[in-house]
Amino acid sequence: MLPLHRFHQAANLLENQIIKTPLIHSPFLSTTFGGEIFLKLENLQKTGSFKIRGALYKILTILGHSHINGVVAASAGNHAQGVAMAATAAGLPAFIIMPEWSSITKQEATKGYGGKVILAGQSIAESLERAEELAHNGKAFIHPYDDIDIITGQGTIALEILDILPDVDIIIVPIGGGGLISGISTVIRSIKPSIKIIGVQAAYCPSASEAINKGKRVCVQSKSSIADGIQVQQTGQKTFEIIQECVDEIVLVNEEEIAAAMLMLLEHNKILAEGAGAIALGALLNHSVVVPKGQKAALLISGGNIDSSLLGRIINKGLLNNGRIMRINILLDDKPGSLSNVLNLIAHLNANLLYIYHDRNEDSMAVDTARVEITLETRGHAHIKAIRSEFQKAGYPTV
Question: The domain 323-393 belongs to what CATH superfamily?
Fold first, then answer.
């Protein structure tokens, strides 16, 4: 296990270079889930993610080597941005290999921090291979997770948590390649081993979970996940060894639960988190992690870099799933006053009209009939049930 003094040295080196992000108490989440829930907001970190910690520490560590004239990294986005920003600050060119499916927002952000983006590979593993090929002639390869310096930089988060909340009982951490949870769990085991460390992965890419179950590193088949920041098909060798030794449990969260966690953070805590950043809360939502009453849990909100278009889709889907939006299609007599009667019924039912589409030209309908598609803002599933019932009583057939 890495010695604790390394993490304190890293914290001192990074002290004036990064943000000591807030650790806030959430009254809403605490009431909802029973224990006292705190959120470590690394989405407010420079570049919008914890990744700047490891990237900057690594680059500052290698600067003493005179032969280094640039850096190469592979990442789907957050590590890319961290390396680009850190390298630019150090006066080094950064060549960033990103999978071809990387979000445009993260590609452009990486370029904005000074990185030279190269799209290569259909997975992180393929991008890593390409990055290692480019790392020659004085260019240092900056691994996104399986590197002692990267792990050390990420572990400084644990020191900040303990400084603010020394009596924390549980820390819940997202897992991709394992660098974040390896750093945090190493620090915790050195200072206060009674604290429970729980890792959370997307069910669509359970690489660390499968590795622990089988007792060895495995490469899993992965589906596209909204938690793309942790979509790593094989955990690192160094990180796997630390996870085996220091992490108590790994749980899985599905896509619907990740989306619901993102929406809950946005609505009730005014926190914008990407899928990987919100996944720790997803573990509370699906009850794979339970925080006993009276205990304190810190959830790592690891990043907030998300495409605006994806955010819009997640919000709409979440509202539909939570009964906050409903869609209804009805057939209506195509005569004066018919639509007005429908709108009066909606007002009587205390629903808010968001969208209406009126079509009288469908081939399958009678000439005196129109189809009306209505989207309403509602208060929950009970409200939706009442609205459907009242529409049926009023004689509006649904289609």
Answer: ACT domain (3.30.70.260)
pTM: 0.88
The arrangement of secondary structure in 51-142, i.e. its CATH architecture, is 3-Layer(aba) Sandwich (3.40)
- The angle formed by the CA atoms of residues 111, 115 and 119, to the nearest 5 degrees, is 80
Nearest CA-CA partner of 114 in 88, 96, 142, 135: 88
Please give the Cα distance from 96 to 116 (Å, whole number).
6
d(CA 9, CA 170): 25
What is the Cα–Cα distance from 256 to 326, expressed in whole angstroms? 18
Q: What is the pLDDT of residues 229-265, one digit of tens each?
A: 899 999 999 999 999 999 999 999 999 999 999 999 9
Non-local (6+) Cβ contacts of 153 within 8 A are 10, 14, 53, 54, 55, 56, 57, 58, 183
**Average pLDDT of the segment spanning 298-311:** 91
Report the CATH architecture of 4-49+152-319: 3-Layer(aba) Sandwich (3.40)
Q: How many residues does the chain have?
A: 399
The two three-digit tokens of residue 61, written as one number = 């560590």
Spell out the alpha helix ranges (H) of 113-197: 124-134, 148-164, 179-191
279: its two tokens:
């996944």
What are the percentages of helix, strand and coil residues in the chain, rounded to 5? 45, 20, 35
